[in-house]
Amino acid sequence: xxxxxxxxxxxxxxxxxxxxxxxxxxxxxxxxxxxxxxxxxxxxxxxxxxxxxxxxxxxxxxxxxxxxxxxxxxxxxxxxxxxxxxxxxxxxxxxxxxxxxxxxxxxxxxxxxxxxxxxxxxxxxxxxxxxxxxxxxxxxxxxxxxxxxxxxxxxxxxxxxxxxxxxxxxxxxxxxxxxxxxxxxxxxxxxxxxxxxxxxxxxxxxxxxxxxxxxxxxxxxxxxxxxxxxxxxxxxxxxxxxxxxxxxxxxxxxxxxxxxxxxxxxxxxxxxxxxxxxxxxxxxxxxxxxxxxxxxxxxxxxxxxxxxxxxxxxxxxxxxxxxxxxxxxxxxxxxxxxxxxxxxxxxxxxxxxx
Length: 354
Hints:
Layout: E1 9-10, H1 20-27, E2 39-43, E3 51-56, E4 59-65, H2 78-88, E5 98-102, E6 112-116, H3 133-151, H4 169-184, H5 190-201, E7 210-212, E8 221-223, E9 230-233, E10 240-242, H6 244-252, H7 271-274, H8 279-289, H9 298-325, H10 333-337, H11 340-353
Helix pairs in contact: 3-8, 4-9, 5-11, 6-9, 9-11
């Protein structure tokens, strides 16, 4: 699969165009040091919140905005993104410095925020084909280190005690994503109907609360240009207070997905030859970093995986709905949306293995 469609910038899509002059006038006096003529380009990657590169004589910045059009309830929360990266600045979790949040849709049409541009590498293929075995292992180790650091941040100490509701995270998330799925539903998928019935009835016992990213994966972090070191974690739209193991399991779906067209996964790969840890090894490193002495039970881990697949089905269904409306932020949105059905069927098959 080629990842060129995700890399770099392009001219701003017509459906996301806005008044550059109005933006420049707004930023003068609000963005420290901002000066000069403003050039706006759109990043190719990303399905949800349109993201833009701003270039001025004072430097480069990134703008994230809500997309135009009819949006799902509570989706595209750029104000929450701004809040969490502002709170995490200075912790062990690397983030871009946030500068300005504009909640007035009168400036460019929707709410937006501006943060620093971070120079580095976004890795789209989890097989890391251009690297040596040692380099792959080091990059996976760093990916695991940073999410462990996130889950150990004292959320109250950084001002995020009210960033979500502590407790009953899974129950609330199952209800939320069922509602989101229904709001974006375009066809009946039997596997989804089965998951909607099964998930609330099988929630594992025990509860924990941490800051959760909600969409942590290789292509949502920026690595140093040449070192296996993460400089910034991106795309905090789905972050909240929640169960850390559920959040960790989300990006472990990579081990369950193939590298077939439209998907980015490790299923079927020779991990030992590549120097990439197995899912079990990667989980064990996380448990060690977060000071957990007990292993995660197989049934609980399977539930977390099924739930995350269901949640991703909800996200993909939302992408499909926006594609059919014509306001999706990525030209390949319709193709992404079509992954909802096979992913739901994979999740339902995992349930039946239990």
